[in-house]
C-alpha cells in the first residue's frame, strides 16, 4: 500500500492573491471565474488523498489562455482509500447568489472516468456537502454544468454564504486517471453561457479525437474477412466507415460545428470494432441453424431471455440457436422471451411472428390468443447521462402490441417479445405449440414452444405494497394524450386502469393534492373499479409537506370517502419528499397531527430513521435502497412498530440495480423479486412512471416503428428514470421492457411468498421434519449466489430462472394445499404481509 501524504496548505494571504487573480473580470453578467489555472499560484494549497493523487499545471487542453490543471489518480489497489481526490480549502466565500458551477473537463486517456465534485462549508465534513457526479468518456471533453443554489439551500445542511472547500473525487479508480480541468466558473443563471467548449479547446480535443478515429477505422477494417462474413455484412461495416469519414470531413469544413457533432463521430468510431465482433458471431450462429435443418433464408433466428437488451445495431448480441424453447409459469402468470431476426445476406422484408395454441397430450389447451407476439421498438439516446453507459444510440425498450410486419436490414437485429399469459384457471401440465417466423420470399421457420404450467396460482393484485405515481402531476396528458376530460371520464380512465392493473400498478399519484382537479385528484370510481377487478393496491389520499395545523384538514374529504368505502387499510398519506434530517422535528409534528385526525391512515416519508425514532408518529419510513440499514429496520419494527419501505430514483446508479434503459432489464427483475425476498422491506415506492417530457403534445407519441422518434430523456438527462410507459399517437399505452421485468420480479416474489406461507402453515400444524421442509427452508434463506448484497447481484438470467423454478418445484411438492397468503383481503393493503411469515 502506498504511504499517504498530504500536500502542504498554502497561506491565506497567498490564496487571497490567487482569488484576486482569478476573480477579477466577470466572464459574463451572470458568471464569475473561480479558477483558470493560468497562474501557478492557483495550484498551491491543494491537498490530495495520498501519493496516488496529484494536481499540477499543464500546457495542454486549456479552455482559454495557455494552461489547465491536470489531476492524476493512480489505479486503485486493495488497502487504498476508497476515494482518491484532490481538494482546495479557502477562506469562506459567499456563493449564495450563484445557481450554477461550470467547468471544462478533458479525458485524454483510453478509459472512461466517473468522477464527482464535492462542495462544502466544512472542511472536516465534506462528505455531507453538495455532491455532483460527472462522467467523461475516453478521449473526449465536455463542459459540465452542475446546479448549486436550490441543492445547497434545500438538500444539504451547508451554508451557501460560507463555502470553503472544493474536492474532485474518483472512487476506486479502475485504471490510472488523468483529467484536465479548466475554467471553473460560478453562474447566476445559465443564460447565454455557451454549452459548447471554447474554440481553442475544441480544436485541440478534435485533433486528438481524429487520431483515435483513424486508429479505430484501421483496427476494425483489419479484422474484416469477406470470405467469412460475406459481402453484405462486410459492406455494412464499410458503409459505417464511409459515414464516419464523411462526418469528420464535414466537421473539418464547418467552423461552426458543435461539440455534439464531434462527439457523435467519436461514438461512431468506437462502435466499429464491436460491430465487427457482432458480425463475427454470425458464422457460428449460421452453422448451428443449418445443423437444425432450418431453411437458409438469408437471416438468422435466435432466442434471448426477457432480461437482456438485444441491441439492434453495432453491439454484439448473445443468441441461442435452437429448435425449441421452454418456459415455466404458474397459473395467472405472464412469462416472456425474445425472438430475434438477424439478416446476414440480404434484407428481410415483411417479417412477422405468430404463435399457435398450446396443447397437452390429454387435450387441455392454452389458446393462441393468450400468447402475444409483440414487437420490440427502439428509442435513440443522443447524450451521455449522469451515469456510466457503454453506448449512445438506439436502445430497445417500448413493446408494440399487434405489430405490423416489419423490414429488417442486413446487419441489424430485430426482436419480438413473446409473452405467454397463463389463464387463472389453467390445468397444470406440459403444453406444446409452435412459433412461426414468416417473411417475403422466405420459407416459414417453425420452432417448438413448450410451457410447463405449475399447479398453483399467482394473485391478480400486487403481492406486495407499492406506492407509485402513474398519473403524473407534471403532465397535461388528459388533454394531450387521452382525448380530453369527457373521453377520460367515459372510457379512457378505465382502459388506463386495466393497462396498469395488468402490471400490478394502481392509477395513483403519491404527490396528490386534495384540492387539485383531475387527473391527480382522488377518483373513488377508479378505486372501486380496481377493487371490482381484484387488482386493488395501496393508494394515496394526499401529499403532506407542512406542519401548519390549518393544512391538516385538507385531506378530510378524501378520508371520509375512503372510510365510506371501507378501504382504510389501502389508503396512505405520503409527505416530505426527500428532505434533509434537519426537517425531522417538523415532519414529526405534521405526522402527529395527521395521526390524531386520520388514525387509520398509513403515514410515511422518504427518509431513513434513527433508533430511537425521531418521527414516532410515522407508520413507516422509506430510505433509499442504497441506505438500507437492516439492524435499524428490525429494531424499528420490533420495538417501535414502525415499518421500513425503500425506494430508488435517479440514484443510485450501478453497481446498484436501477431502471435506466441502458441497464439490462434484469436489474428490475432482481430488485423487485430476489432482493425484496431477501431484505423484506415493507413496501416499495417509485416517484414517477409517466415523465413524457417533450414527447407530450397533441399528435405526439410513437407513430412509426420499430425505430421511433420518441425522445428517451425523462428526468434531467437520464433515459428511463421516472418513465416506464410510452404511448402511441392514438393514445394507446405502450409498456416497456423495464415494466415487464418489474412485473416478472413481482411474480418471482409471489413464488417466494407462497412457499414461505406453506412452510409456516406446515410448521404451525406440527409437521414433522422432512426432506421437503429442509429444502424449502434453504430455498427461503439461500440468497448469496443471487444477490449477496444490494449492489452485488446476478446478471445471469439463468440464475434468476434457477431461483424462481426452485421455489416453483417446492411449492408443487408441498404437503400443504393452501397457496394463498393474501386470503381475506380485497387486494394488497398498504400494510404488508411479512409479519405472518415470521
UniProtKB/TrEMBL annotation:
<protein>
    <submittedName>
        <fullName>DUF4091 domain-containing protein</fullName>
    </submittedName>
</protein>
<feature type="signal peptide">
    <location>
        <begin position="1"/>
        <end position="30"/>
    </location>
</feature>
<feature type="domain" description="Glycoside hydrolase 123-like N-terminal">
    <location>
        <begin position="323"/>
        <end position="458"/>
    </location>
</feature>
<dbReference type="Pfam" id="PF13320">
    <property type="entry name" value="GH123_cat"/>
</dbReference>
<dbReference type="InterPro" id="IPR025150">
    <property type="entry name" value="GH123_cat"/>
</dbReference>
<dbReference type="InterPro" id="IPR045711">
    <property type="entry name" value="GH123-like_N"/>
</dbReference>
<feature type="domain" description="Glycoside hydrolase 123 catalytic">
    <location>
        <begin position="628"/>
        <end position="751"/>
    </location>
</feature>
<keyword id="KW-0732">Signal</keyword>
<dbReference type="Pfam" id="PF19543">
    <property type="entry name" value="GH123_N"/>
</dbReference>
Amino acid at each position: 500500500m502506498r504511504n499517504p501524504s498530504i500536500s502542504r496548505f498554502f497561506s491565506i494571504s497567498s490564496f487571497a492573491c490567487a482569488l484576486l487573480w482569478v476573480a477579477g473580470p466577470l466572464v459574463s453578467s451572470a458568471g464569475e471565474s473561480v479558477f483558470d489555472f493560468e497562474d501557478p499560484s492557483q495550484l498551491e494549497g491543494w491537498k490530495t488523498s495520498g501519493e496516488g493523487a496529484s494536481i499540477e499545471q499543464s500546457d495542454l487542453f486549456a479552455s482559454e489562455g495557455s494552461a489547465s490543471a491536470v489531476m492524476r489518480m493512480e489505479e486503485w489497489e486493495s488497502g487504498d482509500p476508497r476515494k482518491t481526490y484532490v481538494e482546495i480549502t479557502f477562506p469562506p466565500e459567499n456563493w449564495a447568489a450563484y445557481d450554477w458551477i461550470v467547468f471544462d473537463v478533458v479525458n485524454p486517456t483510453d478509459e472512461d472516468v466517473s468522477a464527482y465534485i464535492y462542495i462544502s462549508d466544512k472542511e472536516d465534513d465534506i462528505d455531507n456537502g453538495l455532491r455532483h457526479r460527472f462522467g467523461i468518456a475516453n478521449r473526449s471533453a465536455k463542459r459540465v454544468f452542475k446546479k448549486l443554489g436550490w441543492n445547497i439551500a434545500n438538500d444539504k445542511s451547508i451554508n451557501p454564504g460560507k463555502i470553503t472547500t472544493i474536492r474532485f473525487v474518483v472512487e476506486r479508480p479502475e485504471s490510472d486517471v488523468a483529467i484536465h480541468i479548466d475554467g471553473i466558473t460560478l453562474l447566476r443563471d445559465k443564460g447565454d453561457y455557451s454549452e459548447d467548449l471554447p474554440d481553442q479547446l475544441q480544436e485541440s480535443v478534435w485533433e486528438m479525437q481524429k487520431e483515435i478515429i483513424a486508429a479505430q477505422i484501421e483496427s476494425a477494417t483489419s479484422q474484416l474477412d469477406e470470405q467469412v462474413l460475406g459481402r453484405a455484412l462486410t459492406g455494412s461495416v464499410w458503409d459505417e466507415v464511409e459515414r464516419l469519414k464523411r462526418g469528420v470531413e464535414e466537421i473539418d469544413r464547418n467552423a461552426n460545428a458543435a461539440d455534439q457533432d464531434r462527439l457523435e463521430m467519436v461514438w461512431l468510431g468506437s462502435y466499429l470494432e464491436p460491430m465487427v465482433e457482432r458480425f463475427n458471431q454470425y458464422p457460428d450462429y449460421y452453422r448451428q441453424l443449418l445443423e437444425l435443418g432450418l431453411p437458409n433464408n438469408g437471416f438468422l433466428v435466435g432466442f434471448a431471455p426477457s432480461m437482456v437488451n438485444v441491441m439492434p445495431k453495432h453491439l454484439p448480441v448473445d443468441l441461442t440457436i435452437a429448435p425449441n424453447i421452454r418456459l415455466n409459469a404458474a397459473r395467472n402468470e405472464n412469462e416472456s422471451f425474445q425472438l430475434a431476426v438477424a439478416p446476414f445476406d440480404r434484407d428481410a422484408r415483411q417479417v412477422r411472428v405468430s404463435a399457435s395454441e398450446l396443447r397437452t397430450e390429454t387435450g387441455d389447451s392454452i389458446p393462441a390468443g393468450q400468447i402475444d407476439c409483440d414487437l420490440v421498438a427502439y428509442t435513440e439516446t443522443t447524450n451521455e447521462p449522469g451515469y456510466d453507459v457503454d453506448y449512445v444510440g438506439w436502445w430497445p425498450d417500448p413493446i408494440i402490441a399487434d405489430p405490423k410486419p416489419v423490414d429488417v436490414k442486413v446487419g441489424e437485429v430485430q426482436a419480438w417479445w413473446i409473452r405467454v399469459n397463463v389463464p387463472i384457471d389453467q390445468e397444470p401440465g406440459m403444453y406444446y405449440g409452435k412459433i412461426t417466423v414468416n417473411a417475403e420470399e422466405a420459407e416459414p421457420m417453425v420452432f417448438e414452444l413448450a410451457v410447463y404450467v405449475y399447479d398453483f396460482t399467482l394473485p391478480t393484485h400486487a403481492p406486495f405494497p407499492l406506492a407509485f405515481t402513474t398519473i403524473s402531476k407534471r403532465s397535461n396528458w388528459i388533454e394531450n394524450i387521452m382525448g380530453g376530460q369527457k373521453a377520460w371520464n367515459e372510457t379512457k380512465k378505465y382502459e388506463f386502469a386495466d393497462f396498469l392493473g395488468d402490471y400490478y400498478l394502481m392509477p395513483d399519484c403519491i404527490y396528490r393534492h386534495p384540492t387539485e382537479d383531475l387527473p391527480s385528484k382522488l377518483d373513488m370510481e377508479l378505486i372501486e373499479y380496481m377493487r371490482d377487478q381484484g387488482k386493488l393496491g395501496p393508494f394515496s389520499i394526499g401529499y403532506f409537506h407542512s406542519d401548519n395545523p390549518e393544512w391538516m384538514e385538507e385531506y378530510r374529504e378524501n378520508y371520509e370517502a375512503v372510510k365510506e368505502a371501507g378501504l382504510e387499510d389501502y389508503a396512505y398519506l405520503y409527505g416530505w419528499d426527500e428532505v434533509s434530517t434537519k426537517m425531522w422535528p417538523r415532519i414529526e409534528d405534521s405526522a402527529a397531527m395527521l395521526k390524531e385526525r386520520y388514525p387509520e391512515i398509513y403515514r410515511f416519508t422518504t427518509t431513513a430513521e434513527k433508533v430511537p425514532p425521531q418521527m414516532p408518529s410515522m407508520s413507516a419510513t422509506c430510505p433509499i435502497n442504497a441506505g438500507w440499514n437492516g439492524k435499524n429496520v428490525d429494531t424499528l419494527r420490533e420495538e417501535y412498530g414502525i415499518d421500513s419501505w425503500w425506494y430508488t430514483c435517479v440514484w443510485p446508479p450501478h453497481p446498484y440495480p436501477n431502471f435506466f434503459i441502458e441497464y439490462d432489464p434484469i436489474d428490475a427483475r432482481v430488485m423487485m423479486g430476489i432482493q425484496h425476498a431477501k431484505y423484506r422491506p415493507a413496501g416499495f415506492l417509485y416517484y414517477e412512471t409517466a415523465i413524457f417530457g417533450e414527447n407530450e403534445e397533441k399528435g405526439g407519441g410513437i407513430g412509426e416503428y420499430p425505430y421511433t422518434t420518441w425522445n428517451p430523456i425523462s428526468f434531467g438527462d437520464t433515459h428511463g428514470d421516472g418513465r416506464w410507459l410510452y404511448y402511441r399517437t392514438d393514445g394507446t399505452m405502450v409498456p416497456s421492457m423495464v415494466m415487464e421485468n418489474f412485473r416478472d420480479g413481482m411474480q418471482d416474489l409471489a413464488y417466494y411468498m407462497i412457499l414461505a406461507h406453506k412452510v409456516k402453515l406446515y410448521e404451525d400444524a406440527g409437521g414433522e421434519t422432512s426432506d421437503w421442509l429442509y429444502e424449502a427452508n434453504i430455498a427461503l434463506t439461500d440468497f448469496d449466489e443471487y444477490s449477496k448484497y444490494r449492489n452485488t447481484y446476478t446478471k445471469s438470467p439463468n440464475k434468476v430462472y434457477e431461483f424462481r423454478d426452485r421455489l416453483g418445484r417446492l411449492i408443487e411438492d408441498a404437503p400443504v394445499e393452501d397457496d394463498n397468503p393474501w386470503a381475506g383481503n380485497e387486494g394488497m393493503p398498504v400494510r404488508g404481509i411479512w409479519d405472518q411469515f415470521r
